[in-house]
Amino acid sequence: MTTNRVAANIRNSAHSILRAFPSQQAAHLERYIRWNNNNFDSNILNVDESCLGTPVRAGFGGLMRNSAGFCITGFSGFIPSSSDILHAVLSAIYYGLKMAKDLGLVPVACYSDSILAVNSIKETPSKFHVYAVLIHEIQELLSQENMSLHHTLREGNQCVDFLAKLGATSDVKMLVHPQPSDDLRPLLRADALGTLFLRA
Fold it and tell me: Is the pTM of this model over 0.85?
């Protein structure tokens, strides 16, 4: 029996148990998160930001996969002029959506674990917002293409955290990763298998 089949059997058994005891398990079920939690049947873009070190270095990363979890491409970057975490995550969203458009990887659903960034983009920002121009450029991308933006919890965004940290520790403003590194492959495999992560 293949690993995929074993994982599927475990998930099916878990769902059967939860259905048998709904009143006792409903609250517990909400504490488990997985990649592509909304089951979008499109390309999936996960983005993340990272601020590391002293003095603080801000970086970002993104990972494009198909709906089955196959890695298409990734990217990381360093922001030399800022240590603002909101700037970092907005940059990740912008570069990720722009890459999706340029490479023809639409439709795409973009996930970020920054509720502040997601809300800043979905709402109409003040023209005096420090990142008003960047937010407007993201909104333009979302309005012109078959793209959507969604919030996810940190546990559903773990793979791209690796790339965001890589960006923060580099000196490259934007670096494309056509293939996942060996360190990233086990995390990608876990996501593709639908592994459930306990919400901390």
Answer: no
User: Can you tell me which residue has the tokens 């970057």?
Assistant: 77
Q: How far is residue 90's CA from residue 97's CA, in Å, rounded to a whole number? A: 11
Determine which helix (DSSP H) or strand (DSSP E) holds 63, and give its type and residue range.
Answer: strand 57-65
Q: 76: part of which helix (H) or strand (E)? A: strand 71-79
Per-residue b or e along 51-66, where b marks 16 or more CB atoms closer than 10 Å to that residue's CB: beeeeebbbbbbbbbe
Distance in angstroms (rounded) separating the CA atoms of residues 25 and 31: 10
Enter the DSSP assignment of 112. Answer: E
Amino acid type, 147 = M
CA end-to-end span of the chain: 32
Q: What is the 3-state secondary structure (H, E, C) of 147-198?
A: EEEEECCHHHCHHHHHHHHHHHCCCCCCEEECCCCCCCHHHHHHHHCCCCEE
Question: How large is the C-alpha radius of gyration of the chain?
Answer: 18
- By the 8 A CB rule, do 31 and 152 touch? no
Over residues 53-108, the pLDDT tens digits come to 888 899 999 999 999 999 999 999 999 888 899 999 999 999 999 999 999 999 99
Instruction: Name which of 158, 157, 170 is nearest 57 in CA terms.
Output: 170
pLDDT the model gives residue 82 = 82
